[in-house]
């Protein structure tokens, strides 16, 4: 029996690995060195912050820019980087640096962590992940530092550039501007908006898509996965920006007082940030309720597989839409970009969506009894936590300890993925020895 503890499945190792990182981050954030006051952060608040950082969410119960010291901020930034790329990716980095052999078990873990169907080329993919991340984050940090050097001392601008480049690329949403302002001071700044949106979209597309885009000039082809991700991501961003622009055009509390340029930048940024980034350039709490509910839908869909984002994923949503269209047209097969999808993929998409809906609704119902807030605000916060977005209507600051624990569970589940957690907690599946006779029932 004891030997079985060392034969854990890849999903269980991933769950335990992320839990260990969160625990280590919690202990570091509880030290007096992590706060500007020199006081120890309460355990629940430290756990919430470490979970939010490791699960690249961005929900906070203490202001990152004013409450945490430089040491505490570096701990948070490190947790974001490890959580965004995945602890197995970081472990592989050390193996490559020290020229240690990548074992078969390590490759199985990487396959599970990167949500791949095969181990073929997995180490090569990890090398690309590390290279792309480094290049994108360094480039963005330099651009941020140059822009912010006009507003603050150069050293501080460089530090802000590195922190926000890491935070935004990993779709975390933590910021250092203080008083929970995020990027509201730069709502109409073209450079900040463009760089921030580029980081968010790059991190949310997924490393498979980034790799194929980088090789496109040579290969001149994209896989079905990349075509679906790019088309769905582009469609959601454009539709989201258009809806937000229309709903908030005359809202004096958000974008009503901005000129056309500011309205366009603000609309696109709020649409892009629902890719699970968590940063915001307008006050989310002052948006119209129609806009807030629409953002809940966008957050629930989330980013793409193999990325730093959460949600049910763009590919899952595309499969659901495609299945509905195929059913309406009376077709037996669902076809995307001239490729037929198997029934297994459709069942998996439906399973993920139903599990996510059940989890979000159940958590929102529980929070409705523990927190004093409107249901829309609770649903918004719950979806934001599950989709690892980090956008907030202001409820997180007033959460009870029970509410914080519930959102910690939602962030943890959202980052690992529902199926990964289900496989980790569920019994090992056995081979089916028989099939039941087919039945018929009336639907609709």
Automatic annotation (TrEMBL):
<feature type="transmembrane region" description="Helical">
    <location>
        <begin position="346"/>
        <end position="367"/>
    </location>
</feature>
<feature type="transmembrane region" description="Helical">
    <location>
        <begin position="191"/>
        <end position="216"/>
    </location>
</feature>
<keyword id="KW-0472">Membrane</keyword>
<dbReference type="InterPro" id="IPR003445">
    <property type="entry name" value="Cat_transpt"/>
</dbReference>
<dbReference type="InterPro" id="IPR004772">
    <property type="entry name" value="TrkH"/>
</dbReference>
<dbReference type="Pfam" id="PF02386">
    <property type="entry name" value="TrkH"/>
</dbReference>
<feature type="transmembrane region" description="Helical">
    <location>
        <begin position="293"/>
        <end position="325"/>
    </location>
</feature>
<feature type="transmembrane region" description="Helical">
    <location>
        <begin position="74"/>
        <end position="98"/>
    </location>
</feature>
<keyword id="KW-0633">Potassium transport</keyword>
<keyword id="KW-0813">Transport</keyword>
<keyword id="KW-0406">Ion transport</keyword>
<keyword id="KW-0630">Potassium</keyword>
<feature type="transmembrane region" description="Helical">
    <location>
        <begin position="12"/>
        <end position="31"/>
    </location>
</feature>
<feature type="transmembrane region" description="Helical">
    <location>
        <begin position="228"/>
        <end position="247"/>
    </location>
</feature>
<keyword id="KW-0812">Transmembrane</keyword>
<feature type="transmembrane region" description="Helical">
    <location>
        <begin position="405"/>
        <end position="425"/>
    </location>
</feature>
<keyword id="KW-1003">Cell membrane</keyword>
<feature type="transmembrane region" description="Helical">
    <location>
        <begin position="129"/>
        <end position="150"/>
    </location>
</feature>
<feature type="transmembrane region" description="Helical">
    <location>
        <begin position="373"/>
        <end position="393"/>
    </location>
</feature>
<protein>
    <submittedName>
        <fullName>K+ transporter Trk</fullName>
    </submittedName>
</protein>
<keyword id="KW-1133">Transmembrane helix</keyword>
